[in-house]
Amino acid sequence: MKRRLGEEMTRRVFSVMLLSAVVWFAPSLFAQDSSQWILDQSTLSYHMSHPMHEVDGVSHAAKGKGICQSGSCNFLIAVPVKTFDSGDSNRDLHMMEVVRGADFPMVVVRAQFPESELNQPWIHANLQVQFAGQTAQYANVPFQRTQQGNQVRIQGTVPSTCSDFKITRPSFLTVPIKNEIPVHVDATWRKQ
Amino acid sequence: MDVDRKRPWLWLCCIAFLLAFPRAGFGQEAAVLAGSVRNDSAGPVAGAQITAKSVTSGPSVQTVTDASGSFSLRLAAGTYDVNVAATGFDSQTKKVSVTANKAPALQFTLTAPPQSRGLPNAPSTSLQEPSLQDLGFSPQQMQSNPQLQARLNRRTEMLKIHQKLGVITLFPMAADLVTGPMAKAKGRNGQLISEPTQANLDLHAALGSTTAALYVSTASFAIFAPKISGVKRRGAIRVHEALAFVHGPGMILTPILGSMAFSQEQAGEKVHGIAAAHGFVAYTTVIAYTASIIAVSWPIHLKFWKKK
């Protein structure tokens, strides 16, 4: 009888110790649950609209990294301005001039979104875009997320405008382009 | 009564202030600290942030380097930690002593961070959020280039004038085509049957001269616009430039042939020989010229060869 009681006591003490250990170490275990992502491939394209011309400038030269920690993800994508190709070198040089691409050679996009959305079909990110010497913020921009094996493909459009970055709208035959220059993002990320 | 009571405090405050900041008040003399910032290839680093912080106290003084990588700071006498920071480079700090009216010239040579930190697949240097340095772009890619920006600006300005003059040139060119037949001697089977009036000839010649002058001006703004090295020509500009090899020689030949034709007509002869090609060369020139304008203006989204 005494022996049974002793065993019971030992079991209880052990259970309490185990529970305490779990409670004690749980926050630190969760805190260490961070993940890093790298950009495998990407297509960024801006669309420029004019009554006489519809132009898409495309770049595949973006590089990016992402860190998810403590329930929040911070992603960074950067791309040299001069890598955007609209199919016409003359137009691209004019674009470089208009957006002061030599003074500010990089487009830098910082995205922040809840880590929980990494497993959802849609990610809603708050974006900070540095371009042409200006910084613009875009809240809750939706990106479609598709799982492709061990990669995640993100697609969406940043609703940017010329005025967001104080860009003087280039004109052709005295008619300026539309203020809207949406940037489509198609990026494939891999967990590191 | 109240004033009398406060007066000793007021005096004490004044004395304490003068004792505490004797040099800030009138003893400290300023000197200009000048220097330059270069990369490891001896090229200037423009836009680098220079921060001079006094090692004892006081606020820091900041400036940025100009296009030639030079900077200057007006500092009071003292010892400073001068820090240089530029995107794509490791920052550097030097300690300098500035005495009254005398400051040493500072030279900074910045180097890129170790490649291992810049590889895109390397772990991020921060655990909170990635930094631009983590992505692996070269310093040359990330560094601003004010000289290139100035060339781009100049190029755009010149090409805008080129465009406007080019369109303006079309008008006397078209008028010259219309007045061409009126300035031509009419004949049949070698027999002269009518003469163009002198007024028609003069008008045609005047329009031709105007066209030629405008054409040369238009072309010069394109030819002398700054060239941007390392840019491969793509798109409609190639057609635009290729057609210049047709209308360029055409614009030289047309007035020469026209002058020959004019001389022959003035001599009472029917235009013959190579001068007879004046009209053909002029038409070819105008067609090539118009096509070169259309090449860079055509709404590329409206593909005329495809039915909607």
Quick summary of this structure?
The complex is a heterodimer of chains A (192) and B (308). Chain A is α+β, with helices and mostly antiparallel strands and 192 residues long. Helices cover 21% and strands 49% of the residues of chain A.
Supply the key terms.
heterodimer, A: 192 residues, alpha+beta, Lipocalin, two-stranded antiparallel ribbon, 2 helices, 21% helix, elongated, B: 308 residues, Immunoglobulin-like, 2 domains
Description:
The complex is a heterodimer of chains A (192) and B (308). Chain A has 192 residues and is α+β, with helices and mostly antiparallel strands. Chain A has 2 domains: 1-32; 34-191, Beta Barrel (Lipocalin), CATH 2.40.128.110. In chain A, 21% of the residues lie in helices and 49% in strands. Chain A has 2 helices and 11 strands, in the order αββββαβββββββ. Chain A has helices at residues 2-31, 89-98; strands at residues 35-50, 53-59, 63-69, 72-80, 106-114, 122-131, 134-148, 151-158, 171-172, 175-176, 183-191. Chain A has an 8-stranded antiparallel β-barrel. Chain A has a two-stranded antiparallel ribbon with strand order 9-10. In chain A, a hairpin with a 2-residue loop joins β9 and β10. The longest helix of chain A has 30 residues, at 2-31. Chain B starts with a helix and ends in an 11-residue tail after the last helix. Residues 17-27 of chain B have low confidence and may be disordered. In chain B, a hairpin with a 6-residue loop joins β5 (78-85) and β6. In chain B, α5 runs antiparallel to α6 (198-223) and α7 (236-266) packs antiparallel against α8. Chain B is of the alpha+beta class and 308 residues long. Chain B is elongated and about 95 Å long. Helices cover 47% and strands 18% of the residues of chain B.
